[in-house]
């Protein structure tokens, strides 16, 4: 049994190989560049933890974890094109550095490489693994499309926003854990529980993320507070505020969304506070966390084996940065 | 044993299902739109023919053929973005009709669906099938990247151009046949022979394509002759002309490539003819066809079973439109 930190170290070691052929460099160097930008590698490590929860680490878990991380990076490269984002982890995005067409192709070939790793595992469970991987990949694309659709929509309800976040963010965390659980020989029921644990953890994480962007301590947060508000980004907070606001508050909020004034952030935050959006977000997060932990408790393995996942979950959602 | 036309009819029937979930329509309607634009479905039918050459049709050949056609359409959607192409088969491209971000995402999800079909086949050969599919997918991406690299290069040699066309066009035809052969229980040697047959056929096809664009009969060709010349597209003809031309002809040709005059096509064609590019292309095509047919003859099955492939090959490469 290992902690997140221990497995993270092990995974990063194994992931630091060259995943791509030497040439053409014009296609593969962009992928090498992007992967060396790093990242917390949370999803692949969740996969290994999902295995470790049930049994000693199955050697096939490593290629599956690699496939998950490559898939995640593929989505980042393509999302950056769609969002026209100049920076990722403080460095140039692939399309910014190498051009859009190459970024598109480099992403494509990164996804193909993920399937190469999946094709390396034992036939005993490869069908289940690939089926869950594909379902999740499709859902992540659906989440990204809904996110883009919402940008053009005036009103987005809480339930449809929740569904979008679930697809765009949560299901990959959930599936990473379940893929590991399959490799650890978990029963169908235990697989579902770990999946739901991951899904609810993902939702709590996103609420936290939205909360910190608005109400975080600027010294601890590390980036400018209010970025989502400035960008008129739909978040848990804004969507709830529009639903909870009085008619006057709603008018004021909608006016602010169409303005670009100097104290826009302060004014939006004042309405958020008046609508008690901060308290609501804190309790929504707690609700998702409680649900996540209930699923974790229901899993039929001794409590001690669950400790690393509990610690990680608390770390991810209690963080202030 | 079936002809190309018979298998084409069978495949199109089986392919006319809804490959995608009902919602979100904003993501999946673009894919439905693109697939109903049609196409000759040559690659998936080659896959079924590769099976039919060796044995009765394995039911698993149909999902593999579907995966090949979805993969091909995924590459077309993404290539159209990269080429900024407004039309495909006379209709709006996906990015033109639905926007670039959606086209990117729709292509991604189409590739994922291809892997769903591959995951449906028997474990007995799924590893070999997916390995060849992945290798080919990677090569097609490499070919597209090289093609883009060549656009920016002043001089491209015959060998590097041949390598690019091989990757971008030929290997998918070759692999389609080999995937069918694997499903038909062909030996390793017979698999390699059918692969090489397809590869050489693809090269002959591309030479023919380039030839018709320059020297085709406008009445039979169906589209304007000289399109490649107008677009300064690197083709077998141009690359050979630049290698075979005298110093004066080369200077004239390079000047024409940088001009946009009314009779550019006529002048370039005159240099092509002076350099005997037309004869050279005809003999290059014949060479590739001869090599293709030699590989086909070497396959250890009775001659009668090879007839449909021979007929198709002649049809593809003798066509004047």
TrEMBL record, chains A, B:
Stored PROSITE patterns: POLYPRENYL_SYNTHASE_1, POLYPRENYL_SYNTHASE_2
Keyword Metal-binding among UniProt keywords: yes
Cofactor: Mg(2+)
Molecular-function GO terms, alphabetical: metal ion binding; prenyltransferase activity
UniProt GO BP: isoprenoid biosynthetic process
Family matches, as InterPro entries: Isoprenoid_synthase_dom_sf (IPR008949), Polyprenyl_synt (IPR000092), Polyprenyl_synt_CS (IPR033749)
Protein's UniProt keywords contain Transferase: yes
Keywords associated with the record: Magnesium, Metal-binding, Transferase
Gene3D superfamilies per record: Farnesyl Diphosphate Synthase
Alphabetical list of Pfam families matching this protein: polyprenyl_synt
Family label: Belongs to the FPP/GGPP synthase family.
Name under which the protein is recorded: Polyprenyl synthetase
Native organism: Flavisolibacter tropicus
């Amino acid at each position: 049994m290992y902690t997140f930190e221990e497995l993270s170290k092990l995974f990063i070691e194994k992931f630091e190989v060259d995943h791509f052929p030497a040439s053409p460099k014009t296609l593969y160097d962009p992928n090498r560049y992007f992967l060396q930008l790093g990242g917390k590698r949370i999803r692949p490590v969740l996969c290994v933890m999902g295995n470790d929860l049930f049994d000693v680490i199955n050697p096939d878990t490593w290629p599956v974890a690699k496939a998950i991380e490559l898939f995640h990076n593929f989505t980042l490269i393509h999302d950056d094109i769609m969002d026209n984002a100049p920076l990722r982890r403080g460095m140039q995005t692939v399309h910014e550095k190498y051009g859009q067409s190459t970024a598109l192709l480099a992403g494509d070939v990164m996804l193909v490489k993920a399937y190469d790793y999946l094709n390396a595992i034992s036939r005993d469970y490869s069908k289940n693994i690939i089926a869950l991987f594909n379902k999740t990949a499709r859902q992540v694309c659906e989440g990204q499309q809904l996110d883009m659709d919402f940008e053009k929509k005036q009103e987005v309800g809480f339930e449809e926003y929740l569904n979008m976040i679930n697809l765009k963010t949560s299901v990959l965390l959930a599936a990473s854990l379940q893929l590991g659980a399959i490799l650890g020989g978990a029963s169908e029921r235990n697989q579902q529980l770990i999946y739901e644990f991951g899904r609810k953890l993902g939702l709590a994480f996103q609420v936290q993320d939205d909360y910190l962007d608005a109400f975080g301590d600027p010294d601890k947060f590390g980036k400018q507070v209010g970025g989502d508000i400035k960008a008129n980004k739909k978040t848990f907070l804004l969507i709830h505020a529009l639903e909870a606001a009085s008619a006057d508050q709603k008018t004021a909020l909608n006016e602010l969304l169409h303005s670009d004034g100097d104290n826009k952030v302060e004014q939006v935050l004042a309405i958020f506070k008046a609508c008690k959006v901060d308290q609501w977000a804190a309790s929504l997060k707690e609700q998702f966390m409680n649900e996540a932990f209930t699923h974790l408790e229901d899993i039929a393995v001794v409590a001690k084996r669950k400790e690393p996942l509990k610690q990680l979950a608390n770390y991810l959602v209690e963080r202030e940065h």
